[in-house]
Automatic annotation (TrEMBL):
<protein>
    <recommendedName>
        <fullName>Phosphoribosylformylglycinamidine cyclo-ligase</fullName>
        <ecNumber>6.3.3.1</ecNumber>
    </recommendedName>
</protein>
<keyword id="KW-0436">Ligase</keyword>
<dbReference type="InterPro" id="IPR004733">
    <property type="entry name" value="PurM_cligase"/>
</dbReference>
<keyword id="KW-0963">Cytoplasm</keyword>
<dbReference type="GO" id="GO:0005524">
    <property type="term" value="F:ATP binding"/>
</dbReference>
<keyword id="KW-0658">Purine biosynthesis</keyword>
<dbReference type="GO" id="GO:0006189">
    <property type="term" value="P:'de novo' IMP biosynthetic process"/>
</dbReference>
<dbReference type="GO" id="GO:0004641">
    <property type="term" value="F:phosphoribosylformylglycinamidine cyclo-ligase activity"/>
</dbReference>
<dbReference type="InterPro" id="IPR010918">
    <property type="entry name" value="PurM-like_C_dom"/>
</dbReference>
<dbReference type="InterPro" id="IPR016188">
    <property type="entry name" value="PurM-like_N"/>
</dbReference>
<dbReference type="GO" id="GO:0004637">
    <property type="term" value="F:phosphoribosylamine-glycine ligase activity"/>
</dbReference>
<dbReference type="Pfam" id="PF00586">
    <property type="entry name" value="AIRS"/>
</dbReference>
<feature type="domain" description="PurM-like N-terminal">
    <location>
        <begin position="59"/>
        <end position="167"/>
    </location>
</feature>
<feature type="domain" description="PurM-like C-terminal">
    <location>
        <begin position="180"/>
        <end position="344"/>
    </location>
</feature>
<dbReference type="InterPro" id="IPR036676">
    <property type="entry name" value="PurM-like_C_sf"/>
</dbReference>
<comment type="similarity">
    <text>Belongs to the AIR synthase family.</text>
</comment>
<keyword id="KW-0547">Nucleotide-binding</keyword>
Length: 356
């Protein structure tokens, strides 16, 4: 008995090149919307091109770069079949790390890894990334869609991105600018953003047995809609602050929570003291705490607790900063101050109880 073998092919191994080409065609219109005048060429080349001669106006330009992903929030997008918001999360995680040092985000690239290319699904993800880039004022100059059959299931995917920005050397923000008496201004988050979803999923689904389709009265919408709320992108708001008033530092509140991220920009010998009573975290944070009986310390070192970005400013700049943010539609408030007389040994601490 003989066995007939047919020739092997990439398609037989699970990789569909034609589907990948179709995805590229579908995403082109969205990528085009992010174009800046410094961008050369279009999507489909081997590398994205950005005209660096635009940086000649800087005396000493410093390039800032960051890379990040969205984490297990992508699993909720997959389960809900909603793919056009996760890109906002990706952009926010990258550009808001870049802007912390005062840098203007210039461009991003993305990496989308899928078990099977569904062209419309990939295009929806890129649409969200492009929309996020528009909100951040940066260009999406390229990316990669990789099909990994056998490593990921047909409906599984992950996303990552990298970005580059620029800041004048003498305008670089950070710990060396912070002084005693500076004011800590908190900018509200839009919700959970993109951190802590492993804890959130464990608490709400595994322990509390909740369903994504379940309507939650405190939210006025379903649990899934609340959990997929896109990350607020602050880069243009932060840049507006640097143009209108004196700013000493920013801190992007991501994994590690408010105190740990704020401590990263507080110089040795000084302390940032943030008063919890100046704001009330949104109901999603209370739900996670109650459903999982999660201690407040654990919540605060995992979730943003309603604050997505911090600006540290001289006291005389606080009113101007709050006015600028209000005019831009960003809820913000004075949440604390920088002191050298704290009893706290760490760089930042939360005091008091949350407002109700």
């Amino acid at each position: 008995m003989t066995t007939e073998f047919t020739g092997a092919s990439y398609a037989a191994a699970g990789v569909d090149i034609e589907a990948g080409d179709r995805a590229v065609e579908l995403m082109k219109e969205w990528v085009k919307k992010t174009r800046r005048p410094e961008v050369l060429g279009g999507i489909g080349g081997f590398a994205g091109l950005f005209d660096a001669s635009a940086l000649k106006r800087y005396e000493r330009p410093l390039l800032a770069s960051a890379t990040d992903g969205v984490g297990t929030k992508v699993d909720l997008a997959r389960r809900l079949g909603v793919y056009d918001t996760i890109g906002h999360d990706l952009v926010g995680m990258v550009v808001d790390d870049i802007v912390v040092c005062g840098a203007e985000p210039l461009f991003m690239t993305d990496y989308i890894c899928v078990g099977k290319v569904h062209p419309e699904r990939v295009a929806a993800i890129v649409k969200g990334i492009a929309e996020g880039c528009v909100l951040a004022g940066c260009a999406l100059v390229g990316g990669e869609t990789a099909e990994h059959p056998g490593l990921l299931g047909p409906d599984e995917f992950d996303v990552a991105g990298a970005g580059t920005g620029v800041v004048e050397a003498d305008r670089l923000l950070g710990a060396d600018r912070i002084r005693t008496g500076d004011v800590v201004i908190a900018m509200a988050s839009s919700g959970l953003h993109s951190n802590g979803y492993s804890l959130v999923r464990h608490v709400l689904f595994d322990r509390a047995g909740m369903a994504l389709e379940q309507r939650v009265e405190e939210f006025g919408r379903t649990l899934g809609e609340e959990l997929l709320e896109p990350t607020r992108i602050y880069s243009l708001d932060c840049l507006a602050l640097t143009r209108t008033t004196e700013i000493h530092a920013f801190s992007h509140i991501t994994g590690g929570g408010l105190a740990n991220n704020l401590a990263r920009v507080v110089p040795e010998g000084l302390h940032a003291v943030v008063d919890r009573s100046t704001w009330a975290p949104g109901p999603v944070f209370d739900l996670v705490g109650r459903a999982g009986q999660v201690e407040r310390e654990e919540l605060e070192k995992t979730l943003n607790m309603g604050v997505g970005m911090i600006a540290v400013v001289p006291r005389e700049s606080a009113d101007t900063a709050l006015t600028v943010l209000a005019d831009r539609g960003v809820p913000a408030w004075v949440a604390g101050e920088i002191t050298d007389r704290g009893e706290h040994s760490t760089g930042a601490a939360l005091v008091g109880d949350y407002a109700v």
